[in-house]
Amino acid sequence: MSIRLLIADDHAIVRSGLSMLIGSQSDMEVIATAADGKEAVDKALDLRPDIVLMDLSMPPGENGLSATSRLKDAAPEIDILVLTMHDDEEYLFRVLQAGASGYILKSAPDLDLINAIRTVHSGAAYLHPTATKSLIAEFLQRVQKGQDVENFHVLTDREQEILQYIAKGYSNKEIAEQLIVSVKTVETHKSKIMEKLQMKTRPELVRYALKKGLLDFE
Description:
Layout: E1 3-8, H1 12-23, E2 28-34, H2 37-47, E3 51-54, H3 64-74, E4 79-84, H4 89-98, E5 102-105, H5 110-121, E6 126-127, H6 133-144, H7 157-167, H8 172-179, H9 183-197, H10 202-211
Parallel strand pairs: 1-2, 1-3, 3-4, 4-5, 5-6
Helix pairs in contact: 2-3, 3-4, 7-9, 7-10, 8-9
């Protein structure tokens, strides 16, 4: 039986190229594509692929990190292989914590991607070569000890999303319009963000978001 894949990437030409590459493999089948995280989650829950090949940056839609977390909560049996341009340890940690089974760079050779898909489908994890075993071991050890790996993770997916809008300079009203919620809902989330991060002002939130590279998703 073929490995059934869903490809999520905001660039149509990337989706087409990956579909051609993966579709040329005798043991793989691309059953759907998606342009952002929300579409990826909706289609994955409907079509139940074996693997979702997930990009991280998919503006202006839901990003791949948030989508990975939501999809793993709703359908843990679906494996997620992140395909990204971000060669960064923090992104790697956050993706693993969200439940992804693999992390490969867009700069990787075609054969590495095909091998990554087969590895994840076999039930193993796949990481790009620069992510060392000691790195993973250190991360897991810290999580098991209950240490605060990154206080960004104490925020819910919605709070993380709102924090990124704040960092981009959106007003509460503009954020509410983007997310189709009330201004009061945004204000409530913002208060919880400040409480969790122990911050008191909007500039503090902006500096925090910039320091953590949250704007790198676009």
